[in-house]
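Bumping my old thread because nobody answered last time. Still need a sequence for this structure:
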């Protein structure tokens, strides 16, 4: 157990969406300059239910060292197992893995807090497994692929051996 966790499960509230576990974080800077910690959570009520019961939450901090505090009591997204949130064309986007009632989808949010209201639809092609997205806006100026094409790496398992493989997808025109 870390000496100073950034965010803890809410064991004292077993019905809370993140009472059983809090993990798989993604960080971003909001329009207000605060640091956003997107994370997945699972409820103690459904803890043994596995990834299909995973929801996504967000906490914020004014500085990198924290403290982080949750923005509201509930989840901001009802599906997905990994946390993959990024900015594009003035909006926040979430690439959702195949877990949950509306998994395997692409969603957007104008404020980065209401992804469930903006489901763009199911993704085509094979389901992504534990995707990680290349984010040129965080790097040293290397450009992304032309247009709204994004790429990243995902988990693969050829011949039973785990590894990583490349994937690409195109965002809707913004």
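Sorry it took so long. Here it is:
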């Amino acid at each position: 157990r870390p000496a100073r966790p950034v965010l803890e499960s809410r064991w004292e509230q077993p019905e809370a969406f993140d009472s059983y576990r809090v993990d798989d974080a993604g960080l971003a800077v909001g329009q207000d300059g605060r640091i956003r910690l997107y994370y997945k959570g699972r409820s103690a009520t459904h803890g043994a239910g596995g990834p299909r019961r995973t929801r996504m939450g967000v906490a914020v901090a004014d500085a990198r060292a924290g403290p982080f505090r949750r923005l509201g009591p509930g989840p901001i997204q009802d599906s997905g197992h990994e946390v993959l949130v990024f900015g594009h064309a003035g909006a926040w986007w979430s690439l959702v893995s195949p877990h949950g009632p509306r998994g395997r989808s692409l969603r957007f949010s104008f404020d980065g807090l209401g992804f469930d209201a903006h489901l763009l639809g199911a993704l085509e092609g094979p389901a992504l497994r534990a995707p990680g997205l290349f984010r040129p806006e965080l790097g040293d100026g290397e450009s992304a692929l032309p247009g709204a094409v994004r790429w990243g790496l995902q988990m693969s398992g050829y011949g039973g051996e785990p590894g990583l493989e490349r994937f690409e997808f195109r965002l809707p025109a913004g």
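DSSP finds no helices and eleven strands in the chain. Let me know if any region looks off to you.
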